[in-house]
What we know:
This protein is mainly beta and 431 residues long. The chain has helices spanning 3-20, 49-52, 259-264, 291-294; strands at 37-43, 71-74, 80-84, 94-95, 98-99, 101-102, 111-118, 121-129, 151-152, 169-174, 180-184, 189-193, 199-205, 217-221, 234-240, 245-250, 267-274, 280-287, 304-312, 315-321, 326-332, 365-370, 382-389, 392-397, 405-406, 412-413, 420-425. The protein has 4 helices and 27 strands. The chain is globular and about 55 Å long. The model is unreliable at 1-25 (pLDDT under 50).
Amino acid sequence: MSRPLLAALATAAAFTVALTGAAVAPAAAAPKEKAPRVTSDVTLPAPALAEFESGLVKDDRGVKLGGVGSGLYPAGRPGEYWMVTDRGPNGEPKVNGEKRRTFPVPQFAPAIVRVAVRNGKTKIAETITLKTSDGTPITGVSNQEGHDEVPYTWDGMAELPYDPNGLDTEDVVADGRGGFWLVEEYSPSLVHVAADGRILARYVPKGLNLTGTGYPVRETLPAIFANRQQNRGFEALGISPSERALYIAVQSPLANPDKKTGKASSVARILRVDLRTGRPTAEWAYSMENVATFDPKAEQGDMKISALNVLSPGRLLLQERTDAVARLYTVDVRRATNLLGGAQDDPATKPSLEASLPKNVTVAGKSLAVDLAAIPGLPGKIEGVTVLGPKTIAIANDNDFGLGSFGSDGRLVDSGVTSRILTISLPRPLK
């Protein structure tokens, strides 16, 4: 800047002071918005599986209880939560050049657990194993040949028998009458469970033809959902008592018409189901984030929906994540196109919804609510999210039962990742 210009500016400033009698103060900076804050961070107990399911699991291969962060829902009393395991410890080693789905503890029964958090400590207050109608515990093993992954022993060397009763449970809500609703990934299906863990009904896609179960199976859901990607079925569940409805989100875009399309797609689907009948009443398209900006280290096929809460009729809080990044979005389906029973539910429609979003389909509206990735110290693979109040949420991670590798003796070398529940205070109410 030239000396004459500096002099002119100094003269102008002096003239301003002379006129006003005071120097002009710089504009105040806008106050920085508060960030979400972790107010509680607790680690869950991890008993050996043979202790947790005594009499059911004989050899746990050194595996401890985990995977309970697949679902999270308030249990009524402050500091208590309902949680649900997934199908149990499982791996995907490469054997003879192919990936194989292994079940190191195939006797494990998926379970609902009530966890109590008091003064920074946690305990498992109640365990409800899932059972058939006659009270026999189920497993988490694959259901159907040709539809599900082939189940193998811990080392991937020998095939295990399929179990049509098996569930890969992923989220839980209380039904308000002492029982529960669950979603799972195999069929994929919606499951109604009594207070003692007996399965009252399993609602699956039409045409699935799941036979040999020890509980009622009802084909009420759109057939198109049977085209879920492997290990990417129903993952997120929310309940709306005022609507007498459940909202369900598929974890990833359907493999419609094929796996390659599903992995490249960003269009997922949300269902609304009537609580009394298990029949869908609406279906909407949901546009997931572009992984290039969400998590540049991942691929589009790594994007997942893992949690859903109902804020009010037609308004949801939904989580998108990779293993490393997670964000919560408020979602409004009220003006989205209802796809139920239309062309997009027909596998013969080309191009499919997942391949190319039609111009006449309006997706659900969304806006960023909470950037969990911006909060220091959060665990990876966050799957459980529940709303405790307008400005308070709780989250839980899925630690995959600590599965790392197995030694030559068939015993687990634990990953060291623990199961945690964190309470987070938000700077502004969820809307």
